[in-house]
Recover the amino acids of this structure.
């Protein structure tokens, strides 16, 4: 985890009182609303996080979400 993410995580847990699992579920828009910032992870950092913490139910990088309505 980069220093920037570690600082964001510490802020979310210690200052905002979020549980770790709630922090990781935040969207970028929700994070910006909570912190009043316009900061978002770069593409390479986001890709690294996605590889390190894959969503449950994903196989080979393909989401196993609900079927599309016909």
């Amino acid at each position: 985890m980069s220093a920037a993410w570690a600082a964001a995580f510490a802020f979310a847990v210690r200052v905002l009182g979020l549980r770790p699992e709630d922090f990781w579920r935040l969207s970028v828009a929700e994070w910006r609303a909570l912190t009043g910032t316009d900061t978002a992870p770069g593409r390479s950092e986001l890709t690294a996080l996605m590889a390190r913490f894959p969503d449950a139910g994903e196989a080979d990088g393909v989401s196993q979400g609900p079927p599309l309505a016909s």
